[in-house]
Every structure is written in C-alpha cells, then in structure tokens.
User: Fold this.
Amino acid sequence: MSDVALKQAADQTTPSVINLKKVLGPAHVWALGVGIVLVGEFMGWNFSVGKGGAYGSLIACWVVGLLYTCVAMIDSEITSTVAAAGGQYAQAKHTTGPLMAFNVGLYLVMAYTMLEAADVLVIGDLVTMGAEELGRPGVDPHPFVFFMVAALAFLNYRGVFMALSVNFLITAVAFVSIIILWVGVHPFSPGEITQHAEMLAIQPLPELSNVPGLPYGWMGVLASFQFGIWYYLGIEGTCQAAEEVRSAGRSLPLGTMTGMITLLIAAALTWWICAGMLPWDYLGQALAPLYDASKMSGSTFLHVLLWVATVFSATASANGCINDASRAWFSMGRDRYLPQWFSAVHPKYRTPYRSILFLIPIAVAFGFTGLLAQTITFSILSGLLGYTFMPINVMKFRRKWPLGTIKRGYVHPGHPIPAIVLFILCVATLFAVFLGFGAQLLAMMMFYILASIWFVFHRYKYVRRGDQFTMAWPRPRGY
Amino acid sequence: MDFWDILQYAAWIAAGLLVLWMVLDAIRVSKHFSEDVLTSSQEGIDELAVQQEQHRNGR
Assistant:
C-alpha cells in the first residue's frame, strides 16, 4: 500500500471503529477446520499403530473420533452464541472467568503456533525428500520453511477471505486425493493390491498380551490414543472464525459438523489403505504413510498425486494455524490480557496484522529446530488441556443460560452426556500422553502454572473487567 | 550452482522480501492512523446485523 493511498484512506474513509471483516461462509469454516487437521491423515496418526498395532489404531480412531465429535458439538453450540474471535477463549471468558480464559487463550496460541511450526518443518523435509528422489541429495530445508511461513503469513495479512479460499481449494485437493488413492488400490478386490488378511494377522507379544491382533494388549490400545489425536487435532479451530463469518449461527455449526464428518471419512479411508498395504511394524514409525502406500501401488500418477497432496495438506494446516493463532492472540490483546498493541486491525485489509507479524519469528524458530516430535507434542498437549476444560465451560454455560433464555444457532443434543463423555475421554488420553511423554506433560503444566501466576499477580490489573462481557445476554441465572 | 541451489536462494530472498513488505506496511499504517483507531475493534458488534436493521427501518 503506497503512502498516498494510505493518506487518502486515512483522510477520507477512516471510520471511528475498525472491526474484522465479516466475509466468510460455511465453506470457509469447513476449509479452516479440515485444513488444519487433514495433514494428520497424511502423517502422525500412524504412530498409534506402533503403540497399539493396526487394530489398536482403529480403536483409537473411533474413540478419539467420539472425543472430537463431542468437542465439535459443544463448540458449535457455544460459538454460535458467543460469536467472537478467540473462539474457546471468548467462550471461557463469558462462562467461567478471566483465569480460565487466559489459560485457554494461551493453549490455543501454543497449540496452533506449534502445529504451524511442525507443518512447515514437514514441508521442508518433503522438499528435501523430493529432491533426493530426483537425484539431488543434501538440499537444505530451512529456506523452504522460512518461505512457507512468510508466504502464508503474507496471505493472511492481506485478508481472511483469500486466505481461507485458498485453504478450501488445497484442502479439497488433499481430501479428494485420499479418495482417489482408495479407488486406485481397488477396494472391491481384496488381495489384489491391499493385503488386509495378511497384514492384520499380528501376533501378540506373549509377555504383554493374549489378545489376537493387539501386540501390546489393551494397555497398548490406551497408549495409542495419544497419536489417535492426529486424526482430528484442530477441528475446533473453526471457532476462531466466529467474528468473521457472515452468519455465525448458521455457518459455524454447519462448517464444523460437516468438517467432522469429512475427517471421520478421511480417517477411516486412511487407516484402511495403510493397514492393508504396509506391515504394522513399518507403519508404526513411517514419516508419510499415505505417500508410502501410493508408492507401493506402483502407479506413477498416484505417487506424484500423493506427494502434492501431502505438501498441500501441510500448507493448508499451517495456513489455518496462522489464522487461528493470530485471532486468539488478537482477542487476548483486545481484552488487555496481553498488551493492547496486539489488538490492532489493519484499516484496509481488516486483519489482526500485528498479531500475524508477531507470531512469524516464533513459528520460524521452532520450524528451524527440526524437532518434529517435540514441537507436535507441545501442540497436542496444549490442545488436550483446552479440551479438558470444555466440559466445565459448557456445564456452566447451560446452567447460567438454560435453553430458551438466549438465542442459540445450534443446540447440541443429549446434554450433559457429551460433556461427561468428553471429560472421561480427555482424562484417558492425558493418561495415555503421560505414558509416552510424562516429563513433557509435567513441564508444560508447570509452564502454564507459571504463566497463570504472572497473569494473576501482574497482568490482570490492566484488564478492564467490566468490558470483558460483551454479549447482549440477560443476567445469568443465580446472579 | 544447479537448479536446487538457485531454488534455495530464491526461497530465502522471496521470504525476506515478503516479511520486509509486511513490516514496512505495518510501520506505515502505524504512522498514518492513530492507535485509538487501529485498536478500536469491538467484540460482539455485528455490523451486518446493524446494517440489516437499518435497511429494514428504511434508513
């Protein structure tokens, strides 16, 4: 934007209030949620096979799928009502209180920024891998990591509509590529390309298990939950678009629930393809199992398509993460939980441009470390802690504002069963994470406790307490 | 210097230029608009709903 154009904009059209732009529809919400997650079908979920065997991974796919369906239903109801950037942060602020909101906001920023770093790290590795396959070993991944963060941040800086329209396109290509691969391995001719009967005949280790097909028994199945999260991690990110959708009551539930259905289909197809083509002990530690399966198919077309789709899925995920992390950071700045400087909205592009800029070096720094497992674990743990507090928030929400007292775009069925199921599954999954990453889990909880102490004793005095409650709702029941 | 070397340099340069553009734009915006305007965004304000209401009222 030139100085002259800026001056003209400032002189002629400056409104007294600059809000985020309401331009998104259900397709953008779908693209945001599925875009963040779909990379998990291309890599990561398969580590659950290493923990619990192929059947253990399938059980994790269903159980964690139930966890995320509860997350999607609860999120859809609250966010269709609390239509504000920050998603679960804004929900917690209205239903529970500032300390809970601060922690939830921090979980969101950490979960998305770390996931973004992991995504670009994977893109850098994929470029290196592709160059190697074309006969050029030793290509440095760092310039591609930096370029992806900069290019996607630029896209987000210039406007949310274009950023999420691009996400819709590349996410759709990645999703369709899974279906094409499934068709390409002849699903109706078992034994021709896929070898499920042979691959799934896993012998249990006698000292650990007496259950056929489960090499490490039921404890292995529980341990696999921590990687089963990869099938769906990030679908709750749809809530961050709440302030930029044209109709929050319609778009958010529609985009989130169709996104969840898309992911359930993608997860099932991914498991079926990979479990039938790759031995479980290889699958349990592979970097990109769908890409490996495409190579095993013997089709050059599928090989190239799945390389492109893997890069697209990681790109869509990083793009969605930039969008979500910046909205959460922006929203916390607006409420003065962080310096208000971060809550600036660009007068032309109507995006939280300072928050987008601020998070670039953090993502690049973690992307440059090359520590994929640690980075993604930080993201998963932050997300999981956020889900664990959701049942508390929705219970308070329904108790303070029962059905009929405020207008809801969507009412999730069977309350409080989804909240109770979500809480139980979160505790089980946290235990599974503790089995594999106990030290990291405790270190991270310590980090959040220290951050909470900083907030309570230092930052909270800057918060305008009366301004936090922004929804035009009646006084909550009991107050 | 082969194709991959050129691609790596191109990625460094392109990334640097994009970040530089964003930083310069952010500085220019901060110079031309007051901080009160830039941070004036309000949660819970539905501009579209207000516009629709005004339209319905014939304003």
